[in-house]
Fold:
Amino acid sequence: MERRTISRRNLLSLGIGAGAAAALAACGSDGPSGGGDSNTGGGSGGGASYWFLTGQPGEGIRSNTVKRWNDAHADQKITATTFQNDAYKTKIKTALGAGQAPTIIWGWGGGGLKSWVEAGQVEDLTSWFSENAAVKDRLFPSSFGAATVNGKIYAMPAETVAPIVLFYNKDAFAKIGAQPPQSWGEIMSLVPRFNAEKIAPFSLGGQSLWTNMMWLEFLYDRIGGSEVFQAVFDGQKDAWNHPASIQALTEMQKLINANGFNKGFASVTADSNADQALLYTGRAAMMLHGTWTYGGMKADGGDFVSSGKLGWMNFPPVEGGKGDPSNTVGNPGQYLAISSKATAAEKDAAKAFFKEAVLSDAENKEWIESGSVPIVKGTEAAISASKDAEFLKFVYETSSKAKTFQQSWDQALSPTAAEALLDNIGKLFQTDITPQQFAQNMNQVIGK
Amino acid sequence: MTTVAPPTVRVKKGSTTSSGGRSGAVSWMVLPALFMFIAFGIIPLLGVLFLSFTQWNGFGEIRPAGFDSWRAVLSDPGLPHALWVTFLVMALSWLVQTPLSILIGVFLAAHKRYRGLLAVLYFIPLLLSSAAIAITYKFLLDPNFGLGPGLQSDLLTQDWLGNGTLALGVVIFVVSWQFIPFHSLIYQGGVRQIPLSMYEAAEIDGAGRVRKFFSITLPQLKYTIITSSTLMVVGSLTFFDLIFVLTAGGPGDATRVLALDMYQTGFRANLMGPASAIAVILVLVGLALALLLRRLGGGSNSDSQLEGA
Structure:
């Protein structure tokens, strides 16, 4: 018996060992090539590797850009590997730690980029941008904030701008005979009217937590102005105790307690697009979400978008609030950084790729067709000519006219603070903790 | 298992030398396993212990930090909570799985053809990966588009994953659903090892089905129960994939078990030091439980189970 137990334990650890070995092997290799041509032929030398996210339409557009580049530059081929969103966030960290990062690192800028910079993992692109002013000048200036750490630029802004907007179902409003809300007070008075008709006032994929965060981002801004979160970002002591912060959290819990969200919102993830489905099936009247969901609703919602039942607006002001109603929050762009561990040839290939292929006219056209606004100036004509002209113009204007474009909090803050933030948001929305407890918990991770 | 010989001095000497030579050859064969165990069991464990005394974000410089991580982890109110949730999952899933597994195992142990067919069907959940199971259940339990609203059943339309108590219940249900087949298989094997003569003797004494189950089957399964319980208890410490996909520790922190806490701390919050400290705690709890269960099995493993047979 004794002996058998011991050998079983050995067997068990062997099993664990094999698993670890497989995991290690998976970490070590560059992985299979996901999109585009794989660069296995020897002698090409000057290529670079590039990791990015799966999920249409972005994945296809990114792959097309790589393919166009590879077709034109046989000597500097880019090898693309794709990852699912959450898996990528972990994978890129372990790869950076193991010195196995790709040449071009796709990311969200902000606090995550800052942590890479502090670890000396990414290349300083400031001088490259001053040498190539044309590359910099054609992009939205607001997109550079999240690429800048301590006054230096560490990433190339790319892809699209995605503010968070308030979507609504026009049929649902017609059903109760109401107009879209022009203030927070109107939102609160619409809640019981929709609930009486068994329509959820707001659709929310609450298990994802960052979905809940978008609400706080707007409430903080509208009530106290952009400086309330700026104080947190700057690391001021007890910044979450600001009266506007407590008021915003209190209003948030009021809306939750008034059944402002779909029943069981904490069971719903945004990844499944069930939150969008609630809106386009008319089971929810409104949804606060990123502009990237427009494409999803257009694809999955039947004629919901094409027949004009989808409405959109910027988040309304809060009575007595200090925030500028033109302010918006969301993703001011996506970011491509270059690994500092890459060889000189790889870095050159990556920079040439940034200059010529990223946000090329062909790529911009694909973004606009997919219902997004690329972060490039002067696309108004292309936008007006597109099938989604009305929506894209709204996104373009919201983004370019915003007095402050606040990057999503979880991207702006350090990963440590962001994790604590999401954790506490989960508890706040369960009403497990009070606004004061939330502020107290969050004050502890300020500056971490 | 061991040959019992009168322990005379001469025999002992002889057996020592000869068995010494043989065990020399045998221990040589153990080397590959030993190497794997050290390389993938011991060394990472020491690495984690080392990391728990440092400050590291996962990709930057590793800086020594003394007991900082330990202080942070031990003073965090999240730790007792995560321990409590882990314990709840462990205890409740054991309570659900063990009786059901024993009953199914006993049922399947009988040599009847239709039961063989049923055994194959019962076995299906074990063939699925935890992530696939979690995703499937998530869709089934969706409060708006899941099974409940689909069948228009109010009973099934609950906020399954959005209410702390229900979410914990769902986790335990899904874990049980996934692992009962495995443990039934162990019990089936255990029951088939019980000598038929014992049942025959009991029948002659006039014992009925229930009496036979409680007086013969259950006591005879003692060591099988301990084996299966050890696997369940220690295994439940490492539940991660299923809970991660199903609830991600939510709602709030209602299903945030220790393994998940470790992952979130290390890979989400970039705090490898505290995450390593949690990992060390996890290892210690696991070892303590495994030892405890072995103690429960009785100190003398050589006790005959067949007394009176």
Remarks:
- The radius of gyration of chain B is 25 Å.
